[in-house]
Specification:
Blueprint: H1 3-8, H2 11-32, H3 39-50, H4 56-63, H5 67-79, E1 83-87, E2 93-97, H6 99-119, H7 125-142
Antiparallel strand pairs: 1-2
Helix pairs in contact: 2-6, 3-5, 3-6, 4-5
Length: 145
């Protein structure tokens, strides 16, 4: 790709615009459910559902998020009774879902699916698979160890 095209049609602009639009729609759908958590917080809930007992730092690394942002989200989730801290090795804390946290996953997952299906209207399986490969390649090409 030539430099003029890169400057005229910056990829970051399109990625950012699509991401922000999708997250805004997801947050509206999640808010309508009344659980009081946003998309970013729900990602942490889903991560703990799959990997119980992770520390805040483990979550930040796994999600490639700023540890301070994860800490703020964790505080909200603890305050809402959705997750709790558990002692792991006597001094290290892990995070786990509460019963309330486990109970909200199905309805919130349905909202995520609904918004995602709407966002993917007109995009076939092959295009979706190519998009995932494209985004994964960008990630792999730019990820720093």
């Amino acid at each position: 790709m030539d430099k003029q095209t890169i400057l005229k049609e910056p990829l970051g602009f399109y990625l950012d615009r699509a991401f922000n639009s999708l997250v805004a729609r997801l947050n509206v759908a999640l808010d309508a459910l009344g659980a009081g958590i946003n998309h970013s917080q729900f990602i942490i809930v889903r991560t703990l559902d799959a990997h119980d007992g992770l520390s805040q730092n483990d979550i930040a690394r796994k999600l490639h998020r700023d540890p301070a942002a994860v800490s703020r989200s964790v505080k909200v989730l603890i305050d809402k009774g959705i997750i709790e801290r558990t002692v792991l090795n006597g001094c290290k804390y892990g995070l786990s879902l509460t019963d309330k946290g486990s109970s909200i996953i199905p309805m919130m997952s349905e909202a995520i699916i609904s918004v995602t299906e709407e966002a993917l209207k007109g995009i076939g399986d092959s295009e979706y698979d190519n998009g995932i490969r494209f985004l994964t390649s960008i990630y792999n090409n730019t990820e720093r160890e």
